[in-house]
Amino acid sequence: MEIKPKSTRLYAFLILFDMHTKFFKSALEGISDEDAGKRMDTKANHIAWLAGSLVQQRFDLANLLGAEEKSAADDLFKNNKGIQDDTIYPSLDTYRQDWEKISPILRDLLMNSSEEQLNKILEFPGMSFSMFEMISFNTYREANMIGQIALWRRLLDYDGMKYM
């Protein structure tokens, strides 16, 4: 896929975006919904929460950039909601479908983001930062969370994640 963003500042982020888009699917490959909810007697975020939070993050970023989209599990994840004990999270197929829905929308929004949009200051309780900084953080967080899912794969005795 050709990468020629309106703002050259987003070139490297779009390369990572495309990689993460594939890696997310690979990280979830073959994991059962039952295993996705296992925490193995820890307080760690399980795969179902990690995947749902990651999907929600793409929806939230797309909406900050002008989309009006909602994930299937919005109520479980909106406003950066943490993991909730004793909650049944959606199937991994639900997350995969939402990922397929939002990824091309967000990619297009990123490709067409202007310098003015990237410089826009976002205000949140107790903090503010630019849209560009938000995109930077989200890109980092995607890599981090895909890595956590990859670790869970091994802890749950699945084969390692495939990158190709």
Q: Nutshell version of this structure?
A:
This protein has 7 helices and 2 strands. With 164 residues, it is mainly α. Helix 1 packs antiparallel against helix 5, helix 3 packs parallel to helix 5 (92-111) and helix 3 runs antiparallel to helix 7.
Plain-language structure description:
The protein has helices spanning 11-28, 33-36, 47-64, 74-77, 92-111, 115-119, 131-155, and strands at residues 121-124, 127-130. The protein is mainly alpha-helical and 164 residues long. Strands 1-2 form a two-stranded antiparallel ribbon. The two termini are 16 Å apart.
What descriptors fit this protein?
164 residues, mainly alpha, two-stranded antiparallel sheet, 2 strands
Structural class: mainly alpha
Helix content: 55-70%
Number of helices: 7
CA-based gyration radius: 16 Å
**Sheet with most strands:** 2 strands, antiparallel
Strand coverage percent:
under 5%
The number of distinct β-strands equals: 2
What's the overall geometry? globular
- What is the succession of H and E elements? HHHHHHEEH
**Mean model confidence by pLDDT:** 97
Distance between the termini: 16 Å
Task: Report low-confidence residues grouped into runs of 5 or more.
Answer: none
Strand order in the largest sheet = 1-2
